[in-house]
TrEMBL record, chain A:
Classification via InterPro entries: BOL2, BolA, BolA-like_sf
PANTHER family according to UniProt: BOLA-LIKE PROTEIN 2 (PTHR12735:SF27), BOLA-LIKE PROTEIN-RELATED (PTHR12735)
GO biological-process terms attached to the record: intracellular iron ion homeostasis; protein maturation
Cellular component, GO annotation: cytosol; nucleus
Coiled coil (residue ranges): none
Gene3D superfamilies: BolA-like (3.30.300.90)
Family indicated by similarity: Belongs to the BolA/IbaG family.
Name of this protein: Bola-like protein
Gene Ontology molecular function, alphabetical: 2 iron, 2 sulfur cluster binding
From TrEMBL, chain B:
Higher taxonomy: Eukaryota, Fungi, Dikarya, Basidiomycota, Agaricomycotina
Any GO BP annotation: [2Fe-2S] cluster assembly
Record GO terms (molecular function): 2 iron, 2 sulfur cluster binding; disulfide oxidoreductase activity; metal ion binding
Pfam families in the record: Glutaredoxin
Metal-binding listed as a keyword: yes
InterPro entries: Glutaredoxin, GRX_PICOT-like, Monothiol_GRX-rel, Thioredoxin-like_sf
PROSITE patterns tied to this protein: GLUTAREDOXIN_2 (PS51354)
Keywords: 2Fe-2S, Iron, Iron-sulfur, Metal-binding, Redox-active center
Protein name: Monothiol glutaredoxin-5, mitochondrial
Entry GO CC: mitochondrial matrix
């Protein structure tokens, strides 16, 4: 069953302040493999594990319907650095 | 829609409570124990013993020789790259044990496999392990846990072009 990405996005946006969000369908059509990239101030001061747990908890219902789920979590500042590095390499 | 909103709000409060404990992540926080009461003590104890049985424990799909999932393969490869000796690492194939497959998710409060433990402590899944590998953090963790010998600090490779 395909995951409702609209609901996924709404859940995230209503729970934490989002400055950038990408939901990438990596499933080639079956709708069960997703990668998300979340940029939010809410991640400030939290380590990666805490951030991922936080997102996992928010998206519990959606993740349960997926086959694979992968996430990247950045603060706005970290996202900039990451983008620069992506462009550099 | 209402239900999802409700769930989101309850889980949010849960997550907030948990993040306080997660700043120093342990396998079991008191809040978790309450929330996960349906995992039997027997199973919990078994998994607890398993994660403490050896410095590095990986719950994965397939085996290191024959991984059955790209994420599991990536994690095993990264650990191999860091030279984690086989005698200090144990892997459990969740595909061979459906009980383990479901209970490990509850135990770690983590929805996906693979899962990596170092010295009994949950470190993360594939995303986190790869991220830590890229930042050089993984090496530090493994060194601290005395899984791999300390080497002279050479700057971590930041941009391996793809």
């Amino acid at each position: 069953m395909a995951v409702d990405t609209v609901e996924l996005e709404t859940t995230l946006r209503t729970s934490i302040p989002i400055s950038h969000l990408e939901i990438i369908d990596q499933s080639n059509g079956c709708g069960e493999n997703y990668a998300i990239l979340v940029v939010s101030d809410a991640f400030e001061g939290k380590n990666t594990l805490a951030r991922h747990r936080f997102v996992n908890e928010l998206l519990k219902k959606q993740i349960a319907q997926m086959h694979a789920f992968s996430q990247k979590t950045f603060t706005p500042k970290q996202y900039e650095t990451w983008l620069e590095r992506q462009n550099a390499s | 829609m209402f239900r999802s909103a409700f769930r989101a709000s309850t889980s949010l409060s849960l997550a907030v409570r948990r993040t306080a404990a997660a700043s120093r992540p342990t396998a079991l926080s008191p809040g978790l124990q309450l929330a996960r009461r349906y995992l039997s003590n027997d199973v919990r104890q078994k998994i607890q013993q398993a994660v403490q049985s050896t410095p590095v424990v990986v719950f994965m799909k397939g085996t290191p020789e024959l991984p059955q999932c790209g994420f599991s393969r990536a994690v095993v490869q990264v650990l191999d790259l860091h030279g984690v000796p086989t005698e200090k690492m144990k892997t459990f194939n969740v595909l061979e044990d459906s009980e383990l497959r479901s209970s490990i998710k509850e135990f770690s409060d983590w929805p996906t496999v693979p899962q990596v433990y170092v010295n009994g402590e949950f470190v993360g899944g594939c995303d986190i392990i790869l991220g830590m590998h890229q930042s050089g953090e993984l090496e530090t963790v493994l060194e601290k846990a005395e899984v791999i010998p300390k080497v002279e600090v050479d700057s971590a490779p930041q941009s391996s072009s793809s």
